[in-house]
Amino acid sequence: MSQEEIKIAFSQFAKSLPPEEQAQLATMIMPSSQQLPNCGSILDQLSNAIKEYLKEHQKEAIEFLYKRIIEPPNGFYNKDGGKGAIIAHNMGLGKTTTTVAFIYGIFNEPAIKKLNFKILIVSPVNVIQHWIDEFEKPIWDGFFKDKVCKLDAPICSNKNDPHDIRRMQLGDWQRGEKDKSILIVSLFCI
Q: In its keyword annotation, does this UniProt entry include Nucleotide-binding (predicted)?
């Protein structure tokens, strides 16, 4: 049996286990030198001021996001990456604030903060300024000051042009030439 076949068979076996046994298995085979996320509460990574600012349903949503996207065995430490999550609710209940608090938490998670990763926020064009305003709120204490940018190209750029400014800016950001971790783009820019 080849190494790849062994990995596939082991992965299939691990996925057949209940989640708690998957977590135990992961801790048994994970090299001790690899630091995993705290797997406690992501809320531990938030300042006391932010925790007081958030409503209870927002804290629950942050925990949900963490469990679905980051925490082993389902998170991005899994061979297939995080499972993903969607937060959907009525307008005005703090989904943007919840998401920004989640991002704040993972950026402060010791095992994650040393990774070089990017966050792409795809938003309707009429909500982009709302996202920017959220990242600039005083509650974050300037944490996102040098981390957030938006795609500056006009929406009416030519999508068939290989030198399209939007694509060039997106590529620059992805390659790290735009020294920002978070990019906000409109639905029309991708």
A: yes
